[in-house]
Amino acid sequence: MDIFRNQSRTSSAVSVSDPRPEHQSAVGIVCELDRFFDALKSALDSCDAPQEQESLFEQFEALRSGITATAEQLRETELRSAALARAQADAIVYSAEVINELEETRHHLCEARAAAEKAATDTQRLADTIFDRTHDTVLVLYNGVCVSCNDNAVLLFGCAKEDILGSWPRPLTGEFLNGQDVTAQHVQALYRAALAGETGATEVGCYRQDGRLVWCELKMSGFRMQEAQHVLMTVCDISSRKQFEEELRRHRDFLNNIINAVPDPLYVSDQQQHLVIANDSYCSLFDVDRHRIVGRNIAEVLPDSGGIPQPISAEPVTAIAGSTDEERIQRHSDGMVRVHSIRRSAFHDAVTGAAYVVGISRDITEERRHQKRLSLLASVFNNAAEGVAILTRDGRIVEANPRLMEMFGCDLLVGRCLANVIDLSITDLANELVRVSHGTPWAGKIAATLPSGEEHWYWLSLSRNDTSDNPDEQLIALFSDVTQLENSQRQLQRQAQHDNLTGLPNRRFFRTYVEDLIKSHEHHPESFSICFMDLDEFKDINDSLGHAIGDQLLVEVAKRLTEILGSQAFIARFGGDEFAAVFPRRRAHDESAEDATQRLLESFRQPFTLGENEVMIGLSIGIASYPLDGNDVDTMMSSADIAMYVAKSAGKNHARHFSHEMQERADQRHYLQAELRKVLQGGGLSLAFQPKTCARTGALRGCEALVRWKRPDGSMIPPSDFIPVAEQSGVITQLGEFVICKTLEYCRDWIHRGIDLFPVAVNISPSQLRSAHFVERLMELLSEHGADPDWLELEITENAMVDDIEHTIATVNRLGDLGFRIAIDDFGTGYSSLSYLRFFQIHTLKIDRSFVSEINTDRNCAAIADSIISLGRGLGLTVVAEGVETADQLKALADAKCDIVQGFHIGRPMTAENIERWVLSTYSDSVRQVSGRH
Prior knowledge:
The protein is an alpha+beta fold and about 950 residues long. Helices cover about 45% and strands about 25% of the residues.
């Protein structure tokens, strides 16, 4: 075929390239005609008859045109003939190629058909193998008729194939199913669900023709075959499993019957203390329904028993190792208290590994009662941990156990009189023994001197031996050695009344001492004084040098107090850095409290040496006298406490005696605290705004919001009075939020009216700054008022910023990142390190008014102010001077290149309405649309 194709192409190419005679003659005719025309034209040009010449020329011209056109048509016809010849040749070649490819395709199709027939044969063989050799019964159903099944169906159902094929399988009809029509309907529903595309399974009991019941698990699923929906049903024989489950149920019922036959309450709980099993006795004991309590936590099941431990406890599995036995007391519904013996055993399930506890309780009330009667005889000699003796009514020892011999250090006690063995601190022992023999028992703690001379403490119980044939003649003496307990109690009593670190009496002992002192003076009033003492700056030493050095310092302070006051005062430590002393003045020449405290203050001017460290510390002392400053312990201690805080506020190493003026001031603080809480809820607080201007140009540079408190009578409470109260009482955070909210309300109004008083400075208290959620709360307030952070400048005191330096740095820098301006207020008055400034993202330093007020008269103040301004400029910060009250102060600050000033000379704090009018009248250019704030 390829050879034929190549030969055809070669012949076609040859036939097209050879010129035919027709084409050669047509070209020749045209050329001859052109030569003839040229000759004729030359002849005519020489002719003398011009008209004839022209006519003849026209005729020949027309003849030439016709012949040329005919020759052109002939040439086109020849070209088309040549193209047609080439097309016929190509068609013959293509036909040969197509015939060749069809032959190859037929060959491939034959091979594919053979492979498909082989695969179909293999698939059919595999399907037949699976269908016939699977262990399960397989049925194929179409339109409610079984169209195919394997041989296992005949073996399983015990019937012929005719009973299965050609209709709905007869073994699956109500006649042969356990449960009859109900089960048959369920199987039909499962079949319809499979037709709908759902896969389902169920368990049915099927009776074979021989009458034997076979339990089967039916699974049905739908599939499409020959464009029709079929259902594949697999049937698995689960009779063995059912028989095993039935056997398990029988064993379970048998076990339940055994458990319920146990007369004692029995339960089983899992690792989560959930009740797994509870027998009838358990349910009867607690009067509960088994079905409602199984699966619940034992603690929820056990009823309240009036504080008496439950007979069956809810202890976790991990608390029980092996088997445990104990006894518990249970108050029954009839009010009787019974004793139960409880045994709990932990075990692990061998299959799941889960841990369980089996508990059983037995009422042993009567046994215990009987044992109590016998315990005096059965356990007195061998098991008693106490010393036991059987005495006659005259005190002679009839029997004694080994423990008693060990206690007394004597091997021979029988036959001896008890009073001759040890010296007992019992008054009239003989008469006591007689009273006990008459039925009046005796018990008490006694001291006894042993034959070795040692002194011991015993708890002695004397009772009549009612088990004896002659109870009047025999007594039981039970000795418990409580010497160690007595010593421990005395030690604990001392520890309970003394400070562990310094060994001084503690607050409780101090209070008891003062109470006893007041009681002793009720009928013979005598004056005495108490002092409360608090160390100044102890926290700084504790934080800088460590708690170990701080504890050492407290010990040294206690020693110095004891050395200075000696035996004239009762000294105590309340805790922390608080000490106290009582000066009872038992003798006329005893030193007064005032003189003693002065010597104390003098001694505290000397440093304390703590290893390689030497520290100075002050002492703030508050003094109160009885009965002038109080006639009961609470009043006395309160008065001394008030006086101590007054001394502390006066500076370190001061002493103050209580006065009624102090009490009035304290009462005033309490009153302000209560009133402040009320006004924060119901009004009375307002804001005033003090303007800030440029020190050189006088241009407005914002303002500061200040809180004001006006009483209903119109009088004002200074911030210096209520701000400290707010900080001490814990309402400073609420007060700070009030100031921020009111400020934002005014700012929102100024934005709308185009009044530029921004930024508005607000003071942030140390409590707010220390709060872990301060930033989040501040952003919530801004969101509530539709405000922006750049409206505000947050003023934070220098000391507040270094209370917790790491937290403060994180908080301040976070505020700066959010867009707030940060100012350090009262700069230069605190104790901060300048090195901290490089860590804070701050914008403004505020020079304290104490430096500004003396800037023209005190060289030091001027130098400090100038240094702060230079520091601020060097750090790229804005410097604000507050408290500017004179033109000279303003000029000095302007000359020092201070940026902004604030004070009475610029403008006093004004209400929002007044500062608006002040701005309108003074700074007309500040009333404009504040487009940058929204």
